Amino acid sequence: MSQQLSQASAAPHHPPRRVAVVLFNLGGPDAPEAVRPFLFNLFNDPAIIRLPNPFRFLIASLISGRRAKPATAIYAHLGGRSPLLENTEAQAAALEGRLEADPALPGAETRVFIAMRYWHPMSAETAARVKAYDPDLVVLLPLYPQFSTTTTASSAKVWNEAARMVGLDVPTRLVCCYPTLAGFIDATADLVRPLYEAARAHGTPRILFSAHGLPKKVVAGGDPYQWQCERTAESIAAAIGVDQLDWVGCYQSRVGPMEWIGPSTDAEIRRAGQDGVPVLVVPMAFVSEHSETLVEIEIEYRHLAKEAGVPHFTRVPTVGAHPGFIDGLAGLVRQSVAGRAPICSQKGDRICPGTQSGCPQPRR
Ligand SMILES: C=CC1=C(C)c2cc3[nH]c(cc4nc(cc5[nH]c(cc1n2)c(C)c5CCC(=O)O)C(CCC(=O)O)=C4C)c(C)c3C=C
Ligand SMILES: [Fe+2]
Ligand SMILES: [Fe+2]
């Protein structure tokens, strides 16, 4: 098997002195000029456009050119840039603070780094910084609660290549996913409850648990993302603690001509309008704010809800650096150090193999 696999599964011989935690996230453009190259990087990812080169390169050039204008208009609502990096930095700082002097990591120093997939800081830059830190264990921690070949696996693959390029040759563990992690579920439910109570003044609210969608054929190929999103939605619904809660899981952010998984969030907003119920949109796959939450949900879906006759519309914020969520992430780091986290074996990069204890299983 590959060197990465043996790195990923190898245990350090002694408790680690220095642990590098690398947060994986998508990245977003930091200026209007960055929108097109950011989109090119995204569509040139073989996990997104599954074609060999030179076809992928040509398609990526074409789509990023076409999508640049509407995407720039989206980011214009946010001052021309994505806030994803700042928000990820705030989470990294909170996690580093939480792990400092953590009694579960006796004697270990932990530093938290960020590796974005499609914009800076990308894996190559971060791997060089991690190497300079000289850790004896690396924990790869995706800021994606649910595993997808298009997100976590794609980041892990690029990280492994970057680590090899800079000669970073230390035991490395990838946390595959945490769709029902108590810290994530309870922090989300905490954010929902007061907004749900406020919405009650307008009728019996319906909660739309909304996640970024995926093309149907990615799911048909074995990607466990949709299955894990369903587990997240039912866990948050239970944690909210309202009897006979009206809720539905749905998917937003469809791009391109392919068929995507559903139901779509916009169709659910229209249905809520027909039923005359107040709506709360709860992000279930995003853990910080960016264009998908601040523009698509806050501006576009709010507007659609008004048009569709929804009596009251609420966007529930993402967990961000909520202490409960950060505690949950710290727990995953502790478990990884101890070799007990839901860790993907990285057996291929197609699907989460679900072979480790705690690794949620997709339906077969
Ligand atoms: C075209 C295919 C895409 C797939 C498959 C996809 C999967 C996927 N993406 C996220 C999270 C985010 N995506 C974001 C932006 C974004 N995503 C795509 C396309 C696909 N994503 C595009 C073209 C864009 C750019 C914006 C646009 O043009 O509409 C973002 C926001 C980034 C930011 O604003 O900083 C996030 C976050 C997940 C979780 C996912 C699969 C599970
Ligand atoms: Fe996306
Ligand atoms: Fe897994």
Automatic annotation (TrEMBL):
It catalyses: Fe-coproporphyrin III + 2 H(+) = coproporphyrin III + Fe(2+); heme b + 2 H(+) = protoporphyrin IX + Fe(2+). Fe(2+) binds at residues 212, 292. It is found in: Cytoplasm. SUPFAM superfamilies: Chelatase. Keywords: Cytoplasm, Heme biosynthesis, Iron, Lyase, Metal-binding, Porphyrin biosynthesis. It comes from the Bacteria. PROSITE patterns: FERROCHELATASE. CDD domains: Ferrochelatase_C (cd00419), Ferrochelatase_N (cd03411). Catalyzes the ferrous insertion into protoporphyrin IX. Belongs to the ferrochelatase family. This is Ferrochelatase. It comes from Azospirillum picis.
